[in-house]
Design goal:
The structure is a single chain. The protein has 527 residues and is an alpha/beta fold. The protein contains 15 helices and 15 strands. Strands 1, 2, 3, 4, 6, 8, 9, 10 and 11 form a 9-stranded mixed beta sheet that branches. Strand 12 and strand 13 form a beta hairpin. Helix 6 packs parallel to helix 9. The protein is globular and about 90 Å long.
């Protein structure tokens, strides 16, 4: 490992809204490990996902490219294996790269540059979850619905809870494996959890960290008729009228969500403890982020798929006190910026050579306090998945956020003066010039009719393939973790005491022996 090449421990939560964390000002949520990371690290106050949905957001993060460039439009879209991810770049720079947990890979390539993967994914890897923009009124079986809200609460066990327990265990064990390994390469370990993503279920131990009467309720309550067109479409897509949603349901869902954040915080603490225990906390950059947020009842909305702040703004904390002084960054950034930042940090001051065009930019100037070197970059977002029938596009520049879809009236918000996004400035005469500038920039970036046609064509292909692969003998792409039990624990083909020396951490040096004992291999007697 080069003296200038840091290790990377990237911890990803799923559907974790930045406003729900104490680092970003939430007064109730208990997440002391994340709070410490924030106090000692660089906190990006205005970090955004580039598509408020798991798969497209994660691939934007991995590739530094927008969904319209990669073709990962939704949660059932395959990214071509030829598109480099930060795992490819880091491996070429001498890193060992490991993925542990959720990443929403679809298709036959279940690694995308990672040298190894420790767990399977929690969601399917096929094309079955492909939306249908030509029949937007259809509510498909796999869509979010309000069941998660009306059943929120405590449980002794749940599929999602078990998954994160496995991810945590494997992530911690991998850190100890890295410490015991003779491999001198620096590492990039991505540990990706599924919480606090719905269903809003937690064990009693976490539920009891909060009292019902301390759970805050949504700050913005709007009726269906008061909502913008896209928000009404989301509620229709979720079949919001299937159940009567009471205040008790809303409080319970928020209670469980906060409790799930506390659960993830404990698992973050376990990873940080292991990192310190193996003596790698000083040469490892820890990054905490999420793929998108959760509306959590704000404006009457739930889950994601919206460009409002609770859905689109994500936590981004970079913890490396030995490299970067603790600070808060006000500049608007996005998950697209992760790949160029990692490569910049790993390149030993050499200028990176990009094999594909990037839509993101290195955050190194902002991390080092050289804010003047950060360009006037807007945050760019694309939503091209279910519950719409045309692209929903977002630009944030300065304090202003502009949202456009050909099916809906435009939206323009001044986040500096209207952080709750209650006043749509689009159409107001005083903001006509600003709105015109945003629209001009949008038209320069996207050919919207062609993008819509490309999405629909992709949906056609994927639905046909998904159906075909289920005929006869089904074809599954779900990742099968590779495990060779003959190489685990204690086996007779291994030199017994050398094995024990290698697997213990830290290594214990014995005292000088009184005499040398000749030991024989444990072989069966000859006949």
């Amino acid at each position: 490992m080069s003296a200038n090449q840091p290790n990377f421990l990237i911890i990803q939560a799923d559907q974790c809204a930045a406003p729900a964390l104490p680092t970003y000002g939430h007064p109730i949520v208990k997440a002391p490990n994340l709070a410490t990371l924030g106090e000692q690290g660089v906190v990006f106050d205005n970090a955004y996902c580039n598509s408020p949905l798991c798969g497209p957001s994660r691939f934007s993060m991995l590739t530094g490219q927008l969904p319209s460039r990669t073709g990962v439009y939704d949660n059932a879209a395959e990214m071509p294996s030829q598109i480099p991810t930060f795992a490819h770049y880091l491996r070429n720079l001498g890193y060992q790269t490991t993925l542990c947990g959720k990443m929403h890979f679809v298709g036959a390539d279940q690694l995308h540059g990672f040298e190894e993967r420790l767990t399977t994914d929690i969601y399917p890897a096929d094309f079955t979850w492909t939306p249908d923009w030509e029949n937007p009124e259809r509510i498909l079986e796999w869509y979010h619905n309000m069941f998660s809200v009306v059943t929120a609460g405590q449980c002794e066990a749940a599929l999602d809870l078990g998954y994160d327990d496995e991810v945590s265990f494997q992530g911690v064990r991998k850190l100890y494996d890295l410490a015991r390994s003779p491999d001198p390469r620096p590492f990039c370990l991505v540990v990706s959890f599924t919480h606090p993503h719905d269903p809003y279920l937690v064990t009693p131990a976490y539920w009891q960290r909060y009292q019902d009467d301390e759970i805050d309720m949504p700050a913005v309550n709007l009726t269906y008729d008061e909502l913008d067109a896209h928000s009404r479409r989301l509620l229709d897509c979720f079949a919001v009228d299937e159940y009567t949603i009471t205040a008790e349901h809303v409080r319970a869902a928020r209670h469980a969500y906060y409790s799930a954040i506390s659960c993830i915080d404990d698992k973050v603490g376990q990873l940080l403890h292991a990192l310190q225990a193996i003596g790698r906390d000083q040469d490892t950059i820890v990054i905490f982020l999420s793929d998108h947020g959760d509306m959590l009842g704000e404006r009457g909305l739930w889950y994601k798929m919206s460009w409002f702040e609770w859905s689109a703004r994500v936590p981004l904390i970079v913890h490396a006190p030995q490299r970067f002084a603790p600070k808060r960054v006000a500049a608007a950034v996005s998950l697209l910026d992760l790949l160029p930042t990692l490569v910049d940090l790993a390149s030993n001051d050499a200028a990176p050579v990009w094999a594909a065009p990037l839509d993101g930019h290195s955050l190194l100037p902002l991390l080092t306090g050289n804010d003047q070197a950060w360009g006037d970059y807007p945050v760019v977002g694309e939503y091209l998945a279910e519950c719409v029938a045309a692209p929903s596009l977002m630009l944030r520049r300065g304090d202003y956020k502009y949202i456009y879809s050909p099916d809906d009236p435009a939206q323009l918000y001044d986040l500096g003066n209207d952080p709750q996004e209650l006043i749509n400035l689009a159409g107001q005469p005083d903001y006509a010039q600003l709105q015109g500038a945003f629209r001009q920039e949008l038209d320069q970036r996207w050919a919207v009719p062609q993008l819509r046609a490309a999405v629909i064509a992709s949906q056609h292909r994927r639905r046909l393939v998904a159906n075909a692969l289920l005929q006869g003998k089904p074809t599954y792409w779900d990742f099968q973790p590779r495990r060779d039990a003959t190489q685990e624990y204690v086996r007779n083909h291994m030199e017994f005491w050398e094995l024990y020396k290698r697997t213990r951490f830290p290594y214990a040096e014995p005292p000088q022996p009184n005499r040398q004992v000749k030991r024989y291999a444990n072989l069966p007697p000859s006949s």
